[in-house]
Amino acid sequence: MKKSTKCHSACSVEIALDLISGKWKGLALYHLLSGTKRFNELRKLIPSVTQRMLTKQLRALEENNLVMRTVYPVVPPKVEYKLTELGKTLEPTLNQLKSWGESISQQ
Q1: What is the pLDDT of residues 14-67, one digit of tens each?
Q2: Which CATH number goes with the domain that contains 34?
Q3: Does any domain span residue 34?
Q4: In what order do the strands lie in the sheet with 78-83?
Q5: 63-79: string of b/e by CB count within 10 Å (b at 16+)?
Q6: pLDDT tens across 68-102, in order?
Q7: Angle between the N-to-C axes of helices 25-32 and 51-63, in degrees from 0 to 180, rounded to the nearest 10
Q8: Would strands 67-72 and 78-83 be described as parallel, antiparallel, or unpaired?
Q9: Total domain count for the chain?
Q10: What residue numbers bound the domain in which 46 lies?
Q11: I want to staple 72 with a disulfide (CB 3.0 to 4.6 A). Which of 2, 25, 78, 94 is the partner?
Q12: Residue 58 and residue 63: Cα distance in Å, rounded?
């Protein structure tokens, strides 16, 4: 994560949005709130995302310490994703975004 030495008044918002921005990151994070998921489980929960893009978004979340990726040495390969402790702190924010989205979709 990049940190600026000079921070403007909305710097914290910019940092937070930078970590979770991306069309599929929020959905992946939201689905991981309910627990560990295998890659294909996430693909089924987010049917519009391509395999390549989901991989890219999950890797970015992993790089930012929001998601932990575990690879099991079995055939076929088994990969699981779960929220890190930092990722779990997003739960109230994600639930609030869900509520807000529901309220504006009813207008």
Answers
A1: 888 889 988 999 999 999 999 999 999 999 999 999 999 999 999 999 999 999
A2: 1.10.10.10
A3: yes
A4: 37-38, 78-83, 67-72
A5: ebebbbeeeeeeeeeee
A6: 999 999 998 899 999 999 999 999 999 999 999 99
A7: 70
A8: antiparallel
A9: 1
A10: 23-105
A11: 78
A12: 9
First-residue to last-residue Cα distance in the chain:
37
In a domain, 56, yes or no: yes
What type of residue is 15?
I
Element (H, E) at 52: helix 51-63
Nearest to 16 by CA among 66, 75, 62, 79: 66
pLDDT computed for residue 77 by the predictor: 87
What gap in Å lies between CA 53 and CA 106, rounded to an integer? Answer: 30
Q: Is 64:18 a contact under the CB 8 Å cutoff?
A: no
The three-class DSSP label of residue 80 is strand
